[in-house]
Amino acid sequence: MQGFHQIHPDELENICRLFSKDWALITAGNEQTVNTMVGGWGYAGYMWKKPVISCMIRPQRHTYHIVEENDRLSLCFLPDGYREALQLCGKESGRDMDKFAAAGLTPAFREGVPYVAESRLVVFCRKIYVDDLKKECFVDKEPLRYYEAGDFHRVYTCEVEGIFVRD
Q1: By C-alpha distance, which of 37, 39, 41, 44 is closest to 12?
Q2: Residue 13's pLDDT is what?
Q3: pLDDT above 70 covers what percent of the chain?
Q4: How would DSSP label each residue in 60-110?
Q5: Which segments in the chain show pLDDT lower than 50?
Q6: Contact call for residues 153 and 133 (beta carbons, < 8 A)
Q7: What global pTM score does this model have?
Q8: What share of the chain is helix, strand, coil (3-state, %, to 5)?
């Protein structure tokens, strides 16, 4: 990846801020079918002797089916000045448009895994555990207000395969 250097997972900046303030672009697919969507909910840590990061996707999202069909994905974080592009990628569906073109973004690939070329930070991931949030498992019922339609997120826990920061 020209213009990027790799960092160790221990060097990753504040993951809470990355998801809550910067928003991730969950990007998946292949050369024929690639899509990206905003992911504002996620977490990272260390499990099974591996650095992991988890992201969530609702089943009605177009990216959900693409992530289901692929073992690898990327979480891309854009530099300042891309808020409108992020908003478009969070509101519009890749079923209806080429979100990359509409948002002024460029799909790129590293070892077959798509990412957003304009990113300042890219986390390449390999799915290792997948499960759906379940209503009966919520100890605190307050978060259920986000699921009035019953469309619980699928949680993808992924091994961090590489983290790249723009030079």
Answers
A1: 44
A2: 85
A3: 100
A4: TSHHHHHHHH-SEEEEEEPPTT-HHHHHHHHHS-TTTS-HHHHHT--EEEE
A5: none
A6: yes
A7: 0.96
A8: 25, 40, 35
